[in-house]
Amino acid sequence: xxxxxxxxxxxxxxxxxxxxxxxxxxxxxxxxxxxxxxxxxxxxxxxxxxxxxxxxxxxxxxxxxxxxxxxxxxxxxxxxxxxxxxxxxxxxxxxxxxxxxxxxxxxxxxxxxxxxxxxxxxxxxxxxxxxxxxxxxxxxxxxxxxxxxxxxxxxxxxxxxxxxxxxxxxxxxxxxxxxxxxxxxxxxxxxxxxxxxxxxxxxxxxxxxxxxxxxxxxxxxxxxxxxxxxxxxxxxxxxxxxxxxxxxxxxxxxxxxxxxxxxxxxxxxxxxxxxxxxxxxxxxxxxxxxxxxxxxxxxxxxxxxxxxxxxxxxxxxxxxxxxxxxxxxxxxxxxxxxxxxxxxxxxxxxxx
Length: 352
Fold this sequence. Notes:
10 strands, BirA Bifunctional Protein, domain 2, alpha+beta, 3-stranded antiparallel beta sheet, single chain, 2 domains, about 20% strand, about 350 residues, 7-stranded mixed beta sheet
């Protein structure tokens, strides 16, 4: 009997060490330690053995049972860890992959794209891009730009003022950046100022918040002809080759003389008539589309920065400005400016 118990120990130990998986290990547990196992039967039959053999057989069988139990437990820990690693490797998820279905990649908003295009054009012409605060002082927004007291633009129905300080407001144009730039740099200066501006307007072509790009060129010998050439080059780059700029007399407090500038219609090629003979709906049949305002910088404006080298008797130049939303609406056929700010994905995805 003792020899058979030793054989069970050797066979069981070898089988347990060679087990390749937890399922196989469970089969070995049942085979060697289960209710119908040979070792279990030996332990149950000890009472039937002669008295002199009971102690030896019982002690040896119990020792083998405990040894096999310890081996099973140790081998189970090893197999469990190995199988867990294999399962984790199989179930690994690459979190850097897109979801299913993959979400579309976002894109730059049309207003930002249009602004950057204008910036690229003007930088190519030798201009620097300058920025300034959106919350501005009355001095920079109006006074230094030759807006006298009582000017309509200063009134509450046109301008957002900070309630706690009537001298502080949300800038109504990016022209204050021109004054700040001239204070920081002596002439010559060639710069543009893109950014958000705020006015009390809201309809299909106006918004309380919108974007402008304004430009300034100051130096010796700069004339209205230089403005015409700059507008021609800028509008061709934005609206396509063959476009021309037209200037019409106008009035702005900070320029003298002042002009509004138009671009020749790119839908009817400036004829005012479409191919089918119908009147062009874009330019209303006149062949020109209004774009913005410009003019030669008023000497009074230069007087506010004369101490920085802007002597109106020695230097002169021009300024121009236009709305980014208007440019985007013209180039992409958007009928209502408010669509840019509705955050309607159906609209925004058209300009991916």
